[in-house]
């Protein structure tokens, strides 16, 4: 998401348990800076120039997606380089961005099967679980 979702735009921000007069939409400039830094780090890759395998960001494509921004350009360059981002297409869909929160892998581990191959604790099942080079 490169811009504030419609449902949040006019919501007051909560800071320290208190509602502020400012809304999320008032912070689009700061959101742009954070998004730019995030995309630049993912595009650069790790210290050897390899892509990060996680996180895999999901970006909502809507009719009002602004394709002409610097962040949109950087996002497409990152995608061309690594194929890294997921895109949720809401342009020709009956769904709204507020209907969906993630398109991640939904990994579910069967702990009874993991118990059979333990090589160093419950989550030490060798090559069967986990990722190499994960950034969280």
From TrEMBL:
<dbReference type="GO" id="GO:0006260">
    <property type="term" value="P:DNA replication"/>
</dbReference>
<dbReference type="GO" id="GO:0008998">
    <property type="term" value="F:ribonucleoside-triphosphate reductase (thioredoxin) activity"/>
</dbReference>
<dbReference type="Pfam" id="PF13597">
    <property type="entry name" value="NRDD"/>
</dbReference>
<dbReference type="GO" id="GO:0004748">
    <property type="term" value="F:ribonucleoside-diphosphate reductase activity, thioredoxin disulfide as acceptor"/>
</dbReference>
<protein>
    <submittedName>
        <fullName>Uncharacterized protein</fullName>
    </submittedName>
</protein>
<dbReference type="GO" id="GO:0031250">
    <property type="term" value="C:anaerobic ribonucleoside-triphosphate reductase complex"/>
</dbReference>
<dbReference type="GO" id="GO:0009265">
    <property type="term" value="P:2'-deoxyribonucleotide biosynthetic process"/>
</dbReference>
<dbReference type="InterPro" id="IPR012833">
    <property type="entry name" value="NrdD"/>
</dbReference>
